[in-house]
């Protein structure tokens, strides 16, 4: 059928990305630097396809390989895309965990483990708790983990965005912002927000 053929095509495309990522990972640093504009174009094209977690997960894998096999100065134009995609995935994770929390609050703990389903604009249901989406969440977390683990001098561009994902050492609850003479807590890093929701979920599903 049409949908079966499309799924097979997307899986094949994801596999090709994985193979290309392995090729670059097996190479010397900057060996494929001259092909980086073409690579970036292909990655952006893959990210434009909506609701394709299996493909987007391979893009995150590709990002990790590029961090390890390309010099920082060659990745400057790629960082806005990487940060944007990370933020989108973390927001989706937060939305999913919040939805689970709301369902549990209204229906009881027995439904906490059920898949939450949303209806996309094309009329098809999308379960953001399915294994493919969980793999995408994991891929995004691995990219952030690598960016945090590498020395700051290796990723100077990432240091400008670091505060959005993890708290400063002196404050693990968020950033305090002063605006128009008021003092209020407005932003919490994504990791802090997700960790809080995950702790709540763990308490609910414990026997």
TrEMBL record:
Signal sequence, renumbered to the chain: none
Residues covered by the DOP1-like C-terminal domain: 3-104
One GO BP: Golgi to endosome transport
Cellular component GO terms, alphabetical: cytosol; endosome; trans-Golgi network
A Pfam family reported for this protein in Swiss-Prot or TrEMBL: DOP1_C
Coiled-coil portions: none
Protein name: Protein dopey-1-like
Organism: Carassius auratus
Organismal lineage: Eukaryota, Metazoa, Chordata, Craniata, Vertebrata
Gene for this chain: LOC113078579
